[in-house]
Amino acid sequence: MMSIFYLRRRTIWLLALLFVVQLLCAIFFVTEFVTEVFGLRRWALPFAWREVLQVFASLGLVIGSVTGGLLLRHVLRQMRRVQHQLQAASGEFQMMLDDCLTRWALSPAERDVAIFAIKGMSNAEIAALRDKSEATIKAQLNAVFRKAGVNGRAQLISYFIEVLMNAKPGEMRAAAAEISQ
After folding, report:
1. Which run of H or of E encompasses 160?
2. More confident residue, 84 or 106
């Protein structure tokens, strides 16, 4: 699967060359227009040469436009594919997170606190969101850490990072089960 960001060097050079050709073709047509408007035809090329150059310049612009359209289509397809993969991974992560929280037998309050902690919120922020004291949040977090078999917030977060780094989409639940055993 080739991404626009990882095009081969040869392809990049060909695209750069195509861009230069299109630029030269556009300059040719602008020059033709300017010489026509300002009556500078006597300094311009003979008619036969201009006709040949116009044909090549037209072909260069058409080829550049077609290639640009094909490249744009490729990029749009790639973007859609990446967006679908991201949505799938996000959904997989949510399912894996739910599986872990269920397997750890967390209470609804502990579940909420765990999710907020995984999102990177501080105890004070979680307490404000849940309208509880920081001591309550700290006690609930300690229960989450104990049930998850981790020593603290950093290990809890690193657990999920490890699952994400080691699993392919579609395999996150199995990876989470393996890591937690």
Report:
1. helix 153-166
2. 106
